[in-house]
């Protein structure tokens, strides 16, 4: 089994969205924000548009891992580069969400993650922010996510910038193995799947990776 890392083409954006939804199918936040089949269909389209933005914007990026034999997209990473004064952060909170999405869980989450990143590295810091790193569950454990994340680490190291991200609890150990440290935490009360009552405690960790001195030239 071989993997090919590359920048996706515009014809790959639907496959990237499908991998995202497969990878996050058990995630409480996903279904709190998009609680119906119609909501998930909207989210799939939103993710396609988001991938296109990452392909076209100079301060954003996306890479995919493809099966070397079939060309199937099996994993991807998206990131943006936050540069103070240049508007480099996501503006999810400015979205006008349709009725099939729950703005009450989308907007507060976006603002909460921004606050914890500011606390972790400072409001005026420049950093790479991996926004999504997802692998099709059928390909889990085969190294695709590690390969993709190392590429982003190389890009950040070349600029001497840290990586800052929000990790789901089941991914914390993976990021620690990749050299990340926990700097902060965030939590929300969310409704369980199929419910509208926020009775479930949901948490993530804000994690930071800092390039070693001399890493960019090694």
UniProtKB/TrEMBL annotation:
Provenance organism: Trichoderma harzianum CBS 226.95
Pfam families: Acetyltransf_7
Residue ranges the record marks as coiled coil: none
SUPFAM superfamilies: Acyl-CoA N-acyltransferases (Nat)
Superkingdom of the source species: Eukaryota
Domain N-acetyltransferase stretches: 63-209
Protein name: N-acetyltransferase domain-containing protein
Alphabetized GO MF terms: acyltransferase activity, transferring groups other than amino-acyl groups
Organism phylogeny: Eukaryota, Fungi, Dikarya, Ascomycota, Pezizomycotina
């Amino acid at each position: 089994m071989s993997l090919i890392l590359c920048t996706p083409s515009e014809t790959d954006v639907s496959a990237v969205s499908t991998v995202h939804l497969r990878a996050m199918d058990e995630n409480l936040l996903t279904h709190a924000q998009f609680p119906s089949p119609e909501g998930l269909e909207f989210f799939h389209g939103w993710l396609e548009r988001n991938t296109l933005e990452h392909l076209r914007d100079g301060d954003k990026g996306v890479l995919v891992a493809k099966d070397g034999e079939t060309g199937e997209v099996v994993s991807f990473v998206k990131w943006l580069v936050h540069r103070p004064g240049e508007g480099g952060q996501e503006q999810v909170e400015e979205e006008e969400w349709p009725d099939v999405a729950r703005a009450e869980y989308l907007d507060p989450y976006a603002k909460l993650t921004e606050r914890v990143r500011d606390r972790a590295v400072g409001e005026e810091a420049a950093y790479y922010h991996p926004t999504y790193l997802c692998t099709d569950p059928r390909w889990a454990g085969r190294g695709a996510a590690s390969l993709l994340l190392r590429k982003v680490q190389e890009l950040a190291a070349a600029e001497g910038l840290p990586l800052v991200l929000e990790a789901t609890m089941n991914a914390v150990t993976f990021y620690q193995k990749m050299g990340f440290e926990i700097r902060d935490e965030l939590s929300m009360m969310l409704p369980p799947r199929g419910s509208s009552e926020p009775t479930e405690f949901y948490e993530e960790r804000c994690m930071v990776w800092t390039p070693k001195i001399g890493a960019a030239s090694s």
